[in-house]
Amino acid sequence: MKLALFEGQRRAPAPGLQGQCPSCGAPVMAKCGNYKIWHWAHKTREHCDPWWESEGEWHRSWKDRFPQEWQEIPHQSSTGERHVADIRTPAGLVIEFQRSTIHPDEVLARQAYYAKMIWVIDGCKNEFDPINFSNWRSQPNEHGLAQFAVFGRSKLFERWHTEKPVFIDFGKAGFWRIAHYNPKTKRGVALIVDKEAFVRIAGSGSTDFSGQGGPASPL
């Protein structure tokens, strides 16, 4: 985790510090090595949130586009289930940044839990996906929309065939909202998006991006 409670305040890790998990209250220690990104870790080596995944520079760079007070926000349901949202805006929109592959059941569970949420996916985990997507897609039209078709064994779009809004960060190959995808025909529609505009709109409270749904929503 990036933030823990230290002397009652949320702060980033620093060498020698010990703090408290903002979600479960358990003791955590600052891990400030030379090779891994600095982070807080539970002393028991077990994270209190089963949806948590270890973070790298991609996660941190995306979180840091938003105010720190919106980052890593604990959320507890009426049943007592507790999870930590990567970003939760003042308007209640949750943004989950996902790099690792997770089971479809967990995707659905997170969506049901947060309800008002969107996904931002690291499309560069597989080095060939950005290259292939650039080769598979058409040039964006005047509205920024491009048609694409999947060839080969890539499962990226199939894994994120969901009704929640999905944005894929392909790095130098662009930041794209997947407007539609048909897993049978392996064809879809994507919208090129400016990252800074996305951050500004997501934080404005003016939309939760659900008006046009996600890749699994009908056109």
Commentary on this structure:
- A hairpin with a 5-residue loop joins strand 11 and strand 12.
- The longest helix is centred in the middle third of the chain and has 11 residues, at about 105-115.
- The protein has 2 domains: about 5-90, no CATH class; about 90-219, no CATH class.
- The chain has helices at about 55-65, 105-115, 130-135, 155-160, 195-205, and strands spanning about 5, 10, 20, 25-30, 40, 70-75, 80-90, 95-100, 115-120, 145-150, 165-170, 175-180, 185-195.
- The strands form 3 sheets. The protein has an 8-stranded mixed beta sheet. Strands 3-4-5 form a 3-stranded antiparallel beta sheet, with no helix packed on it.
- With about 220 residues, it is an alpha+beta fold.
- The relative contact order is 0.12.
- It has 5 helices and 13 strands.
Helix and strand string, N-terminal first? EEEEEHEEEHEHEHEEEH
Mean pLDDT level: 91
* Number of domain units: 2
Distance between the termini: 38 Å
Computed structural class: alpha+beta
Work out the number of β strands.
Answer: 13
Low-confidence stretches: none
Q: Give the overall shape.
A: globular
User: What is the rounded Rg?
Assistant: 18 Å
Roughly how much helix do the residues carry, as a percent range? Answer: 10-25%
- Report strand order across the widest sheet: 6-7-8-9-11-12-13-10
Strand content: 25-35%
The biggest beta sheet, please? 8 strands, mixed
What is the number of helical segments per DSSP (H or I, 4+ residues)?
Answer: 5
